[in-house]
Design goal:
Blueprint (H helix, E strand, L loop, with lengths): L1 E5 L6 H10 L3 E5 L24 E4 L2 E4 L1 H11 L14 H23 L14 H14 L10 H13 L9 H11 L2 H11 L1
Parallel strand pairs: 1-2
Antiparallel strand pairs: 1-3, 3-4
Helix pairs in contact: 1-2, 1-5, 1-7, 2-3, 3-5, 5-6
Bound molecules: glutathione.
Glutathione binds next to loops.
Length: about 200
């Protein structure tokens, strides 16, 4: 049984979505987290080393960081094929997009949000515009990040787009709108949002 350490309407909400897609047995443990406005506090029940969400535990095994959790869960619950297995030709693209989410998109978006311009020499990721151009180019060629098939990489990236689309950091475009619709229009997303609200 998977335990999801969760706080409503945060990055852990998308893991209710993934667990619903996977039809995995799980329970949700709602924990408190520190909030940007200074309110809230770490929860001693949360096994995440920094008191963040999401984290999961599975028979004493703790996994944290969204990309690692996505990979762990799709490997462990392969029935609905939300992540290509080892040996599948799409596995490389899958791993790349999971790593791209946490190693490139998140830091690039965070720097943009904080209005920090990257100086000429860049750190481990390109500027947000360059990363977004690559992501959009991928989605112009195919409906999902891995091709014709929806995967957990779309859950991470599509739900992030859904949250920020139309705001100052992410313009609403027909391409983005239709991609977001194909992700959040899934029945598992509706089930997850109903559980998130409780
Ligand atoms: N890189 C982490 C980020 C996790 C994260 O920052 N989660 C936020 C909620 S959206 C949080 O727990 N904030 C409370 C805190 O930082 O203490 C992941 O993707 O899993």
């Amino acid at each position: 049984m998977i335990t999801l350490y969760h706080h409503p309407k945060t990055r852990s909400s998308r893991f209710i979505f993934l667990l619903e897609e996977l039809e995995a047995p799980y329970q949700i443990k709602t924990v408190t987290v520190r909030r940007g406005d200074g309110s809230g506090e770490r929860d001693s029940l949360n096994p995440h080393p920094h008191g963040k969400v999401p984290a999961i535990s599975d028979d004493g095994v703790t996994v944290f960081e969204s990309s690692a959790i996505a990979l762990y869960l799709t490997d462990k619950f392969p029935k609905n094929a939300l992540g290509p297995a080892i040996g599948d030709a799409k596995r490389g693209a899958y791993l790349s997009w999971l790593a791209y989410y946490c190693g490139v998109l998140e830091p690039a978006w965070t720097m943009r949000f904080l209005k920090i311009d990257l100086p000429g020499g860049v750190p481990g990721w390109p500027p947000a515009d360059e990363a977004m151009a690559f992501t959009f180019k991928t989605l112009e060629k195919q409906p999902y990040l891995l091709g014709n098939k929806f995967s957990a990489a779309d859950i991470l990236i599509g739900t992030t787009f859904a949250m920020f689309m139309g705001g100052p950091t992410l313009p609403k475009t027909p391409l983005l709108e239709s991609y977001v619709k194909s992700v959040v229009g899934r029945p598992a997303y509706a089930r997850a949002m109903a559980k998130d609200a409780n």
